[in-house]
Amino acid sequence: SQQGEEDPQALSIQEGENATMNCSYKTSINNLQWYRQNSGRGLVHLILIRSNEREKHSGRLRVTLDTSKKSSSLLITASRAADTASYFCATVLTGGFKTIFGAGTRLFVKA
Amino acid sequence: EADIYQTPRYLVIGTGKKITLECSQTMGHDKMYWYQQDPGMELHLIHYSYGVNSTEKGDLSSESTVSRIRTEHFPLTLESARPSHTSQYLCASSEHRTDYGYTFGSGTRLTVV
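YS: structure for the whole thing
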């Protein structure tokens, strides 16, 4: 797998359900970030979790980080149709000199 | 999202033309980046800058060039466009700190015919 690989590639859920996306990486990181991208637009920064943190919350978003498994998950609770977008994880490597974006998870929330 | 501006939003040009994609940010960020992204695919870093008069090539080989004469401005130039350059180009900026996220522009969708 590549650094910052998301799983699943695509996810389709009903409005009101929770959506969980996962990100795995290979090398040690300084921090991990999640971004959202609406179709044809730029990325929007959602949340950052540092390597010494295990969980962070922001509104309906919950991010966990397991450095022993080199993985992170993004949970969106009570999803809405407006959450339909692609979600990318970005790993900032130790030293902070390089940031690698994954290929993203495409989330479809049906009304 | 309104603090980093990319123009044009869409561009269709003929093969062999020279083009410049503009990117400006009003946040005073030291670091700026250009990414190339095909639809539904991952982002590939093509150029970056850590400050005025500092530019580096990224991971993806690119026939483009960049300049950073002013902190707020980071234009990308293609000397001779080819159909293989058809893609979306995203500009981003960030503070110097490593624990700070990127701010992205809305992108330029380039089609070379």
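YS: worth flagging: The mean pLDDT of chain B is 93.
IM: good catch. Also Chain B is about 0% helix and 50% strand.
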